[in-house]
Amino acid sequence: MLEFILELTQKTLFSLKNFQQEVLLKKIEYVVFDFGGVISKKQNEEIVKKMCRILNIQTTEFESLYTAQRREYDSGIIDAKTYWQRTVKLIDKKVEQKDLDRLIEYDIQSWLDINQEMIEYIKSIRGIVTLGLLSNMTYDTLKELNNVYWKDYFKAKTLSCKAKVAKPDFRIYNICLKALNAKPYQVLFVDDSEANIDAAWKMGINVIKFTDCKTMKSIIENEYILGN
Fold it and tell me: 157 pairs with which residues across the strands?
């Protein structure tokens, strides 16, 4: 009799623990991923060095120069040639057409190192939650990704070049939510940019600032329940 009571107590405690965990965890029906720095790896350092040599700048100067005129290019308002012409003008440098072409090509290629671990994770949850892609992506990068098999994992692909607006502008998050037919609290957004994460959080979207796949998976397992 005592053994029966002990066994029943253990089962009750186990069930109570699981219930407490479920109550504390947030239920997520939609997971939305950024592309650059999440699905693809960080911008390729060797290619960045090549761009720096053309521009005759230090690598420490690159990011601020690279992003200064980026918003309109990401938003599909200007093309790659115009973007790079504006960018080199900031450092009062003249670049020959052949070097401009190289900058355009290097720029595209610098974002195409795909994080295969992330692709496998996304594949593993596609039958559990509805997936979305929300990225500041140029038309030039999009052309390179047209034939990748994993793009079909995403129900909604909200890309800045097509939306004509880029993160962290609130409008692009609303476009994404509408495409998914989702409420902010139902969504988990994964991005490597602090500004993009902050904007999503202010809208009531659950967020994870991405550093690596292992850490992301650990946070999801410990803080969320995935399922439609």
Answer: 133
Structure tokens at 61: 């100067």
Q: Which two tokens stand for residue 148?
A: 């990748």
Omega prior to 168 cis, within 30 of 0 = yes
Task: Provide the number of structural domains found in the chain.
Answer: 2
Residue ranges making up the domain that contains 102: 45-109
How many angstroms separate the CA atoms of 185 and 27, rounded?
Answer: 9
Handedness of CA 106, 110, 113, 114 (dihedral sign): negative
At 7 the pLDDT is 57
97 shares a domain with 49: yes
Residue 127, in any domain of the structure: yes
Treating both helix axes as pointing N-terminal to C-terminal, what angle do 80-90 and 97-109 enclose, rounded to 10 degrees? 110
Radius of gyration of the chain (CA): 22
- Regarding pTM above 0.70, the answer is yes
Domain assignment present for 8: no
pLDDT band (50, 70, 90) for residue 16: very low
Question: How many H helices and E strands in the chain?
Answer: 12, 7
